[in-house]
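Q: I have two molecules that I believe assemble together. Could you output structure tokens for the complex as a whole instead of separate predictions?
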Amino acid sequence: MAAWETQIFSIAFYCYFLASCLYIGYLIWLQGSLGRMAHWLSLLGVVANGMAIALRTTRAGHIPFATMYEFGMVFVFGMLLVYLYVEYRCQHYALGAFVLPVAFLLCGGFSLFYQEARPLMPALKSNWLLIHVVTAVIAYGALAVSFALAVMYLWKRRLEQNGEDGPIMYLLPSLNTLDDWVNRLITLAVPFLTLLIITGAVWAEYAWGSYWRWDPKETWSLITWLTYAIYLHGRATMGWRGARAMGWAVVGFMMVLFTFVGVNVLLPGLHSYAL
Amino acid sequence: MEPRNPHVLYIIYHQGREYAWGAAKIGETVILGDRLGSIRFTDVKPFSGLQVKDDPGIPVVWSGFMIMAVGFFISLYSRRVQIWLLVTHREGTTRIGVAGRGGIIAMDSVYNKITASATVAQSKARR
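A: Yes, here they are, computed for all two components at once.
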């Protein structure tokens, strides 16, 4: 069973890799067929990813949210679902050239943290696990896509500044469309980020006896939240648009990554046995 | 009550830092790794830990959480567009100034609608 699960997850990984290559190839050779193939490959990757999650669930006997590898699987799955929705709404295959490489790199990164499925630590045996982690998947999935699109914005802006006028400019969505989607994804994510901290606090109260202990994970999730709060305020009251707002979205996702990966690796704390 | 499928969770510390952890089935030998040898738990004795706590602040905390969560969804998920129109008549011409806030795409579509209807109105007026 273990072999099956890892193999199916590596199928998802290869699908994401090939899809990234094809999406980038689509931008280089401007062939619509490459974009369509990349689209189907990402769909296939999502299906394989979902199957790997299901297998892991049956094998571990609990929803696969307990270790970094398990959460990583679900995180990339959530990210791809958000991306496929955005692609469907925008009808732009060009977006994939930035989103899929992020998905593929995350996939590869989380595979490094592979652990055999184990029984849950007693502190994690709670219904809060599901709620807490589902909010995390929605928030982080949307933020990962917003990051990729913000990078795309900055890239396209640079092309425009360099006076690029080739056919590629017609394939890329307009700067306003990208700006609008990044903003939409962040506003989608922030309430879930808030819920993530709230459910975490409530659960910590049940499991450890205190809402908030300035554990590194808690501190960094607050920093992430504040970063996006600054983004929203900058946009609403100080008129941040374009490059400045996009730059901030990129910084925000760096915070997400540090909260999620850096804290586990560098700063020991109460979360260290899990996420 | 007999425990179903009992496991013992163990954590190994090395110089004060967590080194490894795992779950060992009762009666099963677990090899811990380099130079650490192996370990086998032979039996479990059931016990309960009780925590007694009185917290009169819980309703306050919960309502705070609820208001915060609901407030965030309402304030960020309602799409609002604010528009100001400034119409000035001077010497037979009408100037319309438009300002607003909201998403760029939303503003664009509002602007396009206004200019489209203004063009229609203009052509009607000419006729």
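A: One point stands out. The mean pLDDT of chain A is 87.
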